[in-house]
Amino acid sequence: MEDNKTYCAADYKSNQSVRWCPGCGDHAILNTLHKAMAAVGVPPHRTAVISGIGCSSRLPYYMNTYGFHTIHGRAAAIATGFKVANPEMTVWQISGDGDGLAIGGNHFIHAVRRNIDINMLLFNNKIYGLTKGQYSPTSDRGFVSKSSPYGTTEDPFIPAELVFGARGNFFARSIDVELQTSQEVLAAAARHKGTSVVEILQNCVIFNNGIHNFITDKEHRAERTIHLRHGEKMLFGPENERGLVRDGFLLKAVTVGEDGYTIDDVLVHDARCESNFLHQQLAMMDGHDLPLALGVIRDVASPCYNEEVTVQVAEVRARKGFNTLRDMILAGETWEV
Q: What are the φ/ψ torsions at residue 245 (nearest 5 degrees)?
């Protein structure tokens, strides 16, 4: 919050008509993003929203902030440059599973590795929506689409696995229909120093309707998802009667009070543990044998690339006496042609 001013969600909304299909999960994500920004309190004029190409990438038009609708797969690269050049700004990057993990996959993993202080929102509907229904890097093996009429013969990326493979320090997950959870994880992402990645499972009503129904339908959601909160027991189920326990090096779901398991056996979530061993196991659960993990799974402090670059520039400038880029270039070995 700046100058003790309190902001509301409406302060972050533009006057543009929202042009997504009726029923698209993007509407819910936009609504929770406005609320999360208001909760964090960074002023709109100190906020930038940068996107690539895809249905989700229309989002900057609906923000009363600085915005940049860029080119396919390059949102992370442009967001990186913007943040380094404008370290006082809060930067949100919006990408879909295709834009972020296919053509933009290289930029995605290196932004995470460098730990740029940006907030990356990955809308995952397991389909290319804007280009009308081709399979994406997160589509399941065997998925039938316009570009795979006989079923894909590939295994998909799991976004969390990429984040941890790139040594990421913040990963959270929500579902478009879980408005409170989405607002919670988006606010946590904004407060994290460094690259934060939030995967939101989103429904495309036109080309992939119901792809997440296994975990999103109200009848089974409590059994097939678990909401992780730092410092709290890993409990789930309609009455929080089930919990996660250690089973050797792996995890196991048990019913508290049965087979000798008590509440003391249930693990406590530690999102701030530097080792990502348990975080990876939690993030890889898929709602079948073990519940899909929602909430903030990993939130660990680590040096930010943009802050380290700013410090380095100041040190070199003071030591070498550079005032301009030309000074620096001419300080090296030069010759005339």
A: -130, 165
